[in-house]
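Intended use. Records like the one below are meant for learning the mapping from a protein sequence to its folded structure. Do not use them to infer anything beyond what is encoded.
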Amino acid sequence: MIRRAGPDDLAGIMDLERTSFPTDAWSEAMMREELASRHGWYIVDELAGRLVGYAGLRAVAGAKDADVQTITIAEASRGRGRGRALLEALLDEAARRSVREVFLEVRADNPVAQRLYASEGFLEIARRPRYYQPDDVDAVVMKLDVVGWLRGRAAQPADAGACT
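Structure written out for the chain above:
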């Protein structure tokens, strides 16, 4: 079940954050600020009462662009469409806020995430050398045209993007 994240989710989010990103996890203070920010929109994915994923969007009120801040799925829950469901929820929120473009950075050594983003219509627009520290991994910068994404979704059969 995907729902809006709240302050009570911080401990579970940080557990996943530290497990998924052992060398460059966000600090608890940074994540607390993100969850409380009026520009942030964070969601969690629960399975049987356990947090198995979270995602965040930063969209300043009135801006025409937004950023996917993070999407994280617990290793045992990967490969089941949960990351796509979180991404689609973020993009739906961006559309609701009248955002026209969504940007993100993804690790160059994460081809699974890159394929997910590309399958939703994100295009690589740049690279940031050695962006992820201390691992010296490049960031792939990607951009999505939200209007085009919405058109593409409308053209799909009703059950094409359904997640269970």
